[in-house]
Amino acid sequence: MDKNFGENLERRTDKFDEKLMYLITEQIKLQKEYEDQLEIIEKGKQELLKIAESAVIENHSTEIEKREPMVYDDFFEDKNPEQNLPNEAGIQPKVPNGGNESRRKFLKNLGKIVLGTGATAIAGKKVINYIEKKSENKKEIEAEKKDSGPEVIEVNHKREIIPWYKYKDLTPKLEFRYKSIIPELKIEGLKMVGKTSANGASGIEGKILRSLRFQNVANAVEGKYNLPKNLIVAMIMQESTGMDLLPNGADDGGFGLCHMQGDIAREFHLKTYGNCNERRCKNGHAIKLRNLIEENNHDRKLVVDKDDRLHPILNLDAAGRMIACYMAQPPITGGKLAPLHLDALQSAVARYSGAKNYKDYWKNVSANIKLLNNKKGVEKVRKIFNAKNEKLIINGGPGNFDIYIKKSEEQNINYGLESYKKGKYYESSNSKKMAKKYKNSFK
Predict the structure, then answer these.
(1) Number of neighbours of residue 114 by Cβ within 10 angstroms
(2) 3-state DSSP call for residue 159?
(3) Rounded to an integer, what distance in angstroms lies between the CA atom of residue 406 and that of residue 382?
């Protein structure tokens, strides 16, 4: 019996020693991982500091909070994570050989080492994941900077991404509707390009000339909503031909540089004359407003408080909001336009113009953008205008095409353009994609 007991004890001792050696081997592996994690954490700490420093540089215009940059310690629940780490003496396991330390105590201490090393590894993994995420975000930001697309106006504003339905509520709050800041133009001997009628200016040159007087407002709107460059001016050329107080040809209630009917203007929170809210005005508001404009000798500043559509900034901003709102919605896939496979921008224009008018409207607006972008159309207008206006006098001095356009644009400051630029800036969910897609399409 003593012999059997001795053999059993020996076998159990051997098994225990095998398990112990296995644990020791695993602990040594974890020790190596622990040392590797410490190295990774240190690298992570340096990387985070670099990210924090670059963030300060890239956001130099933003007030930085007065606190230290986040380092890896912020990821630990324990304020002093080093207290949970094994000390140097504990890292080196020593196999018990019958000394004062019992096997149970040894295994308990060994377990603490294993758990401590594991906790450090988990914390290190958190740091690594955070660094990778920050690095990916940083790469995305750098990529956007490299390919922001020349089709949008450059602005130093942080954009806010909002759902499509919120664009309807973004009516600008201008500091004033009209204020005499820039003296009114005094022009002598002006000979405009293109004839005019109840339907607007004739000829592409006449449309370009009149529409460019509102280029700075259009640029501000395109910048505010991240729209393709020259889209708004192209729409002005198509809608009112640049004659800002001209009612639409049907005389059924459409007004503005970008013509808007009463119901759609009200939907986007513009004030209309007589609170007209009809698609086709049959209550006399349209005729009364046209008569009011004529009674005031087509003097814009005297009628802008009667109807927001007559205000150049409020009108063009609403047109920009409509395009941004419609572009943020899913592209059109059903109905008569389904076979055309419209993208987000084309769908926005279709919703703006109506399915019936879309093909001609998109064709004309696209052609207008190309003329404005490649400068050939503008250069032709410049030559024609200057040839017709050799004796032009503007504000007491010689005038030409460039002076006429510049001085006309300056008048828009009197309608609150500078306060408009100070407002928030937005982008629709599809605006970046469309800017990239149409980067070279309108040339």
Answers:
(1) 17
(2) strand
(3) 13
How far is residue 59's CA from residue 138's CA, in Å, rounded to a whole number? 13
CA torsion sign for 76, 82, 83, 88 is positive
d(CA 311, CA 265): 12
DSSP 3-state of 27: helix
Q: Residue 164 burial by CB count (10 A; 0-12/13-18/19+): exposed, middle or buried? A: middle
**What's the pLDDT tens digit per position in 250-294?**
777 899 999 999 999 999 999 999 898 888 877 778 889 999 999
* % of the chain beyond a pLDDT of 90: 52
Amino acid 52 reads A
Six-digit token string for 296: 């005031």
Question: Nearest to residue 401, comparing CAs of 246, 210, 272, 236?
Answer: 210
- Work out the pLDDT band at 326, boundaries 50, 70, 90: very high
Query: Which distant-in-sequence residues (6+ apart) come within 8 Å of 370 by Cβ?
Result: 442, 443
DSSP 104: H
Q: In the chain, helix, strand, coil percent, each to 5?
A: 60, 5, 35
Q: How many whole angstroms from its chain centre is CA 148?
A: 10
Who wins on pLDDT, 112 or 323?
A: 323
Locate 329 and state its tokens. 């919605």
Contacts of 357 (CB under 8 A, 6+ apart): none
Q: How far apart are the first and last CA of the chain?
A: 101
Higher pLDDT, 49 or 265: 265
On whether the pTM is more than 0.70, the answer is no
Q: 386-418: per-residue pLDDT in tens?
A: 999 999 999 999 999 999 999 999 999 999 999
Smallest CA-to-CA distance from 233 within 381, 432, 25, 22 is with 381
The beta strand positions in 240-376, using DSSP E, are none
Give the integer Cα–Cα distance in Å for 287 and 284: 5
Whether residue 189 contacts residue 364, with contact meaning beta carbons closer than 8 Å, is answered with: no
